[in-house]
Amino acid sequence: MADRTSNSKEVARDKRKPERKVPRRITKDRLRNIALHHLERFATSAENLGRVLYRRALKAARHHDTDMEQAETWIDEVVDGLVRSTAIDDTRYADGKTLSMLRRGQSPRKIRAYLISKGIATGTINAALEHATTEFGDPDLEAARAYAMRRRIGPYRTKEITSELKQKELAALGRAGFKFEIARKVVDAETEDDVV
Asked: pTM (2 decimals)?
């Protein structure tokens, strides 16, 4: 009886731990397929796609005899080919991501930091933020308005206003990357129209 119990526990443990699959050997064609599959699912920059492919090559290298220098050459060739074919366009990516993040209430400072982390050039980031200015007027203020609406602060608050609550709202806007003047304008606004 004790043996059956211990065997059933071992079987239960085996079910919880699925066997890890060994990644396939990396070739240039395999890297191109991985890149295309990634692009079907996500918008990305050239630099970020190179990082994704490098991680996949490194993972495969742990199980196979892989020349990482050759893999890096293939990665560069695959990414360059996708850039030439315009499947990857850092300018288009930066513009789209900037507008999307502004609409969600992300500050231009956070957007800049995010795009830098994805390997976008400073000039491209500046152009994307400038393009957002033509669409929104003041992107900082528009993003702060969206952030306030989402977090229910400023003119969107549902609680009774106190000086302590105002300080908390100012701090939240500051942590989100908004300038003090913008944060003060949002927190002091009584109606949505006051945030101008």
From this structure: 0.73
